[in-house]
Structure formats: structure tokens, C-alpha cells
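stuck on this:

***
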Amino acid sequence: MDIKELTYCDIAKGHQFHGPYHDSEYGFPVEDESLLFERLTLEIFQAGLSWLIVLKKRQALNIAFKNFDVDSVARFNQGDIDKLKNDKTIIRNKLKIESTIYNANSILSIRQSHETFAKWLFELSPLSKEEWCRVFKKKFKFIGGEIVGEFLMSIGYLKGAHHEKCPIYKKVKVLNPEWGRVEINKL
């Protein structure tokens, strides 16, 4: 098989880092706010880098960002930013660090109107990828089409995390991800 034809499902199989993420997280529906915030942040930190680097740095990013507790991260100040910029265990990109704090505050504002980040996502669905991008660009920082698309695939809102022959595809579909609910409603 040509390397260009390999999917994430093919690459992840048996891999130390990709395998566990692919088999138990990628594409599975997520409602927990900290997990949603983590997933969005990881996609932002991946921009310009490989997903493998992000997966290797994931534990350190969780420590640095207080397990992605939105309230805690929203209170980060310049001293926290300076500390993170010097933390060799994480991806030290000032714009990505600052956007994480900004995005935590955006999620706080979402809570005011929708109670939770998960409800906000659910109430907006279904949208096309382009529509999702427009909404996310108004609400969050360091957001682009690839980041939004991968984030939404990773939490089950957009189809495409797994190819249909992947055994994980069936496990995800049974959980009724948002993309599956949208497909049913179109019938």
C-alpha cells in the first residue's frame, strides 16, 4: 500500500501513542467540558506540528493547564504565561498558550448562554464544516479550518475519524455520535 493511501486508522494500529488514542478516544462522543477543552487545545497546539508530538506532550500539557479545568485556566495571568513559555515539557508557543487562556474565557461566556460547552455544540448542530468554522472563528482564538474540522471529528460531530472498515468505526457508531444522529435525521 502506498503511504499516501494510508489512513489514520492504518497508521495508528499498534502504535505506542496513536494506537490508544485512535482506539479509545478519536471520534468518540465527548460531553465532559474539560475533555472538550483539552481536545480543542490539543488541536490548536498541533498546528504546524505532527500529531505524534502533541500526543507525546499531552500529559505535560494536562499538568501545565490544570487538567484543562476551564475555570482554572481562565484565571491564568502574565506570570502563568511566562512560566509556560519556559516550560520545556510542553509546546512553548506564546500564541498557542495565550489562545488557550482566551478560549477558556470564551467557554466561560458560553456557559452564561448555554450552561455548558457541550450544550452549545449540540444546540448549534448540525452545521457544515464551513459554518462551524465561521462560528468558531467568532468565539475562539487560533482557529482555522483544519483545527475546527479535526476537533469536531475527534468528538464525534463530523464524520471521518475512522474509515468504515476500521473496527473502531462500529464502536463509535453504536454510541450515536452527532454525525450519526444528523445522518438519521436526514432520512
User: Anything to note?
Assistant: The mean pLDDT is 94.
